[in-house]
Amino acid sequence: MPVKIRLQRHGKKGKPFYWIVAADARAKRDGKYLEKLGIYNPNVNPAQIELNIDGSVKWLQNGAQPTDTARAILSYKGVMLKKHLAGGVAKGALTEEQAEEKFNAWLADKENAVEAKKGKLTEAQEKAKAEALAAEKAVNEARIAEAAPAEEETEEEATPETAEGTDATEEVEATEKVEEEAPVAEATEEAPKATEEAPAAAKEEE
Fold this sequence. Notes:
By secondary structure, the chain is an alpha+beta fold. It has two domains: 3-94, CATH 3.30.1320.10; 95-165. The protein is built from four helices and five strands, in the order ββββαβααα. It has a five-stranded mixed β-sheet. A hairpin with a 6-residue loop joins strand 3 and strand 4. The chain is elongated.
């Protein structure tokens, strides 16, 4: 029976989540499988991969053929390297201790590389967040600067109107004073005329 190591799709629409399985090559992609070897979640960065390395090596040694995507995942997790080292042990080129030591050293280097990538991603996210915050702050400052001159212009426009109102009030008061003084002057002018007319009337009586 031909066996393939492949991905079996799970998850929601637009957010796929895969199981890594060993299945009969004639079975449907999402059908029955012989053994579940791990999971693959591409929705996070870096992708989440959990794999049974020894089980995968065993299936490869028994003739299972991985698909292209599955081969890339197996290689990424060191399955192909461990299979190669196991072949060296079988031929007598390496002892099991030496093969295990080499594999552990490779795993340590791989782990360091993954952690470095995570650190760079975190740093990039923090930098992008800081830049976005600075841009938002600059926009807010620009809005405040634009609003300040408008308020000053409003205050300046209000002051002349008050001054004009004061001038108008002064003109009204001056006019009222003139009108109050005018009757006094008229009365003063009429007094001499009355005095002049009085002697004339006295002469007529004589």
